[in-house]
Amino acid sequence: MKKIIKTDKAPAPIGPYNQAILSGNTLYTSGQIAINPATGELVLDNISDETKQVMENLKAVLAAAEMTFENVVKTSIFISDMHNFGAINAVYATYFDEETAPARETVEVANLPKFVNVEISMIAVK
To answer: What are the structural domains, with CATH classification, of the chain?
Structure first.
């Protein structure tokens, strides 16, 4: 059985999907981009601020499922320019303990929704 997870502390979906689905003890988040949920505006000042907003959105979705980054077992990072990898990784690293960080892939793609620079999704387990 699946449970829909949603919070107003993260951006509302921009299509026919939910912020996350909890199936049993496993949470599957939709990809988050840097939309500030308070304003509905994109945070695109620089790649570090953009990545931080993405991670804060994911933090809010995890919290709505009563989880934290400690519960995350897998992340998928999609970026529009691999030259931004270092800056994205630096921000991402502040949300995890390196010893217990989740599995991950990072993939460069041609475009992302709203032509942002980074999108991240996660799988977490209670």
So the answer is: 2-125 (3.30.1330.40)
| pLDDT, tens only, 8-44 | 999 999 899 999 999 999 999 999 999 999 999 999 9
What are the Cα distances from residue 58, in Å, to 32, 47, 103, 112?
7, 17, 16, 17
- DSSP secondary structure code for residue 67 in this structure: -
pTM higher than 0.90: yes
Tell which residue, 124, 126, 116, 125, has the closest CA to residue 32: 116
Q: Where are the alpha helices (DSSP H) in 10-101?
A: 47-64, 85-93
Judge contact between 78 and 118, C-beta under 8 A: yes
